[in-house]
Structures are given as structure tokens and as C-alpha cells.
Amino acid sequence: MWGRWKPFWPRFGNLRDKDLGHIPVLRREVVELLCVHPGGCYIDCTLGGGGHTRAICERGGRVVGIDIDPYTIPRARESLKGCSEVIALINDSFTNLESIVQALDLPRVDGILFDLGVSSLQLEDEQRGFSFKLDAPLDMRFNPQQKLKAEKILNTSSKDELYAILKQYGEEDRAGKIAHLIRESRPLSTTFDLVRVIQRAGKKRGRIHPATKVFQAIRIAVNQELENLELGLAEAEGILSPGGRLAVISYHSLEDRIAKNFLRTSLSLKPITPKPIRPNRTEVEENPRSRSAKLRVAERSAENPLPPSSPPQGFSPPLKI
Ligand SMILES: C[S@@+](CC[C@H](N)C(=O)[O-])C[C@H]1O[C@@H](n2cnc3c(N)ncnc32)[C@H](O)[C@@H]1O
Asked: What DSSP state is assigned to residue 224?
């Protein structure tokens, strides 16, 4: 399996983070705003390369790391060797947070982190199809056991369905034209097939690559990212201890809107970042992928405890690798 991973060494950044293949975004801010303390119990819902998990461990926090992508687990386990604070690394979706916590019999959770989107490890993997810079099969699944791939969406959706995906999930201004060209160019089988279609739609190179929004939209649709985020946040709210903190790092306006509304409207959470925290110029220079990041944090209040939730039906323990 290790042969699958192409190492990605960014030019800058702290040496230990480079070893992870993914530089954790807003690392110091996350640890500070989660008020990580020795012996506290934290859940990293999006383990990725394990960078945030390690930062929490370094402050003495005990961590459960979860990722829906099974390929992340052995890699993170390797990079977290020696971190005795790691409670478990679990291949599951954060939409199952409650059952994961129950299976581990965790008495309380002091902090929960969602660092959304795709990791550098996934982007740089030539087989996964997440990047418009690499020619790869049109896959884009976080969970390789899932049936739906990008290829199916692109080759079988109606023009209206494609338009809705590109407009809604990518806020793509040429959604109509690109949807039309995708249908005309079928069958599409690789990421470069899709990039050629986008080029034919006449998109000019601006501040971002012309394919950015289309790839984002298809990836969100394949992985049902927005629906999962809403479910995951609701589960997180239910398992936080009073005084515990929930942190969400988003990378585009759709994710940020969901996080902002959730934290603002929740009866049991009090936002503690009136405005989202952004990476400073040094961080963006060192890690350009951090440039669109927004961190929002809220605290679970003691006053409005949620009723204890009933055990999930048909519960099966998460797969522990
Ligand atoms: C930006 S990366 C996290 C990087 C990590 N914080 C680090 O420092 O290395 C996002 C991760 O979330 C994972 N992910 C996406 N959807 C998920 C879900 N529903 N449940 C669990 N993990 C998910 C992806 O597989 C990816 O590894």
C-alpha cells in the first residue's frame, strides 16, 4: 500500500509537519482555541496525515483520530508512532461520531475538530482523481468502498443535474456551458478529459485555476460532503462535555456557511470566534493550501444540556485498523 503514496515535500514549513505529507492548517490556533490540556479527551474527526492529532498530543491531550479514507490510517499511525496519548485511530465517517464514542466507552469529550476538505496526501495520489494537475481515473471518493465515483456522475447525469451540481457545489459561473460540453464529450474517463472540457468552455485563468470550482463541485457531490458535515456537526454537539469546544476549519464558502449557521443557531453552543480566524501571511506563504481556510470555534454551554441520546439502532462497532 505504501507504494500508492507519492511523497509531497512542500518547500517551506516546519520539518516535522513535512514528514506528515500534509501541513496542518492553523495548527497553533486550533490547539489554543480548543484549550487543549493534559489528560483532556479530544476527537480529530478528519485525521488526514495526523498533524492536528499530533499537535494535540504534544500538549498532553488524548486523541481519537477518525478518517473515512482507510489509506490515511496506516500512514497517520506511522507518523504518530511514540505519541502515547493517541487513544485510537479509526476508519469511519464522522457522521457516526456518537456510536464511535460509545464503542470506545469515552466518558467525556473536551474538544472536537473538523478540518474539512481534501488532504495533500489525497491530492497528490495519482490514483484518486482529486487533482486537476494529475491525469487520473475520475474517482474522487474519500471512501474507496463507496460505489459512486465521479465518472458515474459525469457520464450519466442529465444536463440539469450537472448544472445543479456545478452551480450549487462549485458556484461555477459557466455551469450551463460546462454541463452541456460534458454531455457532448462523453464518455469521460480521466481527470484530464474533464480539464479539456473546462478549457473548451472558455474559462480564463484567473486568481484560481479554471478547473478549481468544477473539481470542487464534483468532489462534494461524490462524497456528499455538505450533508455529511451537517450530520457530523449535530453528532459532535451531542457528545461534547459542558465547557468542551468544537472547532471547524472550512476551505470554501459552502462549508463555512454551514459551520457558521450551525454554531450560531445551536442552543447548546456559544460561538467564541465572532469572526473566523484566518491564517497569517507567513502561514499562507509557507503553505499556500491554507489560504482559503477559516476557523470557527464554539463552546458547549453548561446551561442547555442536550438530552442524552438513545443508543443507535443496529449499532456495530467501528472498524479499528
Ligand atoms: C484536510 S484533511 C485533514 C488533514 C489533517 N487535519 C492533518 O493535519 O493532516 C481532511 C480529511 O477529512 C477526511 N474526511 C472527509 N470526509 C470525512 C468523513 N465524513 N468522515 C471522516 N473523515 C472524513 C478526508 O479523508 C481527509 O483525510
From this structure: T
Rounded to whole angstroms, the Cα distance separating 24 from 320 reads: 23
59 Cα distance to chain centroid: 23
Find out if CATH 1.10.1760.20 is the number for domain 2-121+233-320. no
Residue 287 in contact with ligand 1 by CB distance below 6 A: no
- CB of 115 closer than 6 A to ligand 1? yes
The closest residue, in CA terms, to atom 16 on ligand 1 is 68
Distance CA 208, CA 210 (A): 6
Question: In CATH, which of 3.50.50.60, 1.10.150.170, 2.40.50.140, 3.40.1280.10 is domain 127-225?
Answer: 1.10.150.170
Of 17, 56, 67, best ligand 1 pocket probe by most atoms within 8 Å of the beta carbon = 67
> For 55-90, b where at least 16 C-beta lie within 10 A, e where not — what string?
bbbebebbbbbbbbbbbbbebbbebbeebebbebbb
21 lines ligand 1 (CB under 6 A): no
Residues in the chain, total = 321
Could you identify the residue written with the cell 485498523?
321
pTM of the shown model: 0.90
What count of Cα atoms within 13 Å lies in the side-chain half-sphere of residue 112?
A: 27
pLDDT tens, per residue, the chain with 321 residues = 223 323 332 322 333 454 557 899 999 999 999 999 999 999 999 999 999 999 999 999 999 999 999 999 999 999 999 999 999 999 999 999 999 999 999 988 999 999 999 999 999 999 999 999 999 999 999 999 999 999 999 999 999 999 999 999 999 999 999 999 999 999 999 999 999 999 999 877 788 899 999 999 999 999 999 999 999 999 999 999 999 999 999 999 999 999 999 999 999 999 999 999 999 999 999 999 999 999 999 999 986 555 544 443 333 333 333
- For atom 2 of ligand 1, the residue with the nearest CA is 119
Taken in order 157, 201, 187, 209, is the CA torsion positive or negative?
negative
Domain boundaries, the chain: 2-121+233-320, 127-225
